[in-house]
């Protein structure tokens, strides 16, 4: 499982980690709002596109963490 995570975008993993840590201290509505906000940021990131393009091109992604 660790190997699979290591192949993913460090940007996404860091954001997911923050969401999980914050959600324990937030209401459900606040946690969902935080998730929506981070998703919006992620949609504009290089790593998001790099996650999609390699799939179509049948190559391994090269994440930059941005």
Write structural notes for this entry.
This protein is mainly alpha-helical. The chain contains four helices and no strands. Helix 2 packs antiparallel against helix 3. The two termini are 23 Å apart.
Order of helices and strands: HHHH
Number of distinct helices: 4
Low-pLDDT runs of 5+ residues are none
Q: Which structural class do the helices and strands define?
A: mainly alpha
Tertiary shape: elongated
Radius of gyration: 13 Å
* Biggest pleated-sheet summary: none
Q: Mean of residue pLDDT?
A: 84
CA distance, first residue to last residue: 23 Å
Helix content: over 70%
**How many extended strands?**
0
Tell me the strand percentage band.
Answer: under 5%
What is the fold's blueprint, element by element?
Elements: H1 2-6, H2 10-23, H3 28-43, H4 46-57
Helix pairs in contact: 2-3
Give a quick precis of the structure:
By secondary structure, the chain is mostly helical. The chain has helices spanning 2-6, 10-23, 28-43, 46-57.
Feature tags:
66 residues, mainly alpha, 4 helices, 0% strand
